[in-house]
Amino acid sequence: MNCRTEKGVHFLCKVPSELMRCEVPRMILQPIIGNSFFHGFAERDEGCEIRLQAGLRGSALYIEVTDNGEGIDEKRLSELRSWSYTSGNSHHGIGLKNIRRRLEIIYGGRSGVAVSSKPGESTTVTVTMDRYRETHRTAEGGGYEDIGR
Questions:
Q1: Residue 121 in this model has a pLDDT that exceeds 90
Q2: Which of 9, 15, 22, 145 is the most exposed place for a label (fewest CB within 10 A)?
Q3: 146, part of any domain
């Protein structure tokens, strides 16, 4: 993984091999991982970890990104979950809203973005693409890959 940062970040990827070649819409994961750096690791230079997991639940593809950063306080988390939040800074909060909107347009159903967090410990963002199997094919297999630092 190419990463332009001076932070010591360990990236773990736990994706079944059958899903490693799955196509997902562009700019779905980048804003989420970017948020880990911008918000989660803002005050940390070492010991940063991002875990990416993916799988199928019925016909839906889910991708889960977890960081061990600062977490999100309960008030902000509630605002994020309401999807009606605003920000004084024009670029804050746009990424997750755009991802959610695009997934709903492309995949419909229960597609979307869910955010959970433990302040001071971690944040997890789960992206769900409902009816993924109906529009994409996957190969057989399974596995785990650690793509390093």
A1: yes
A2: 145
A3: no
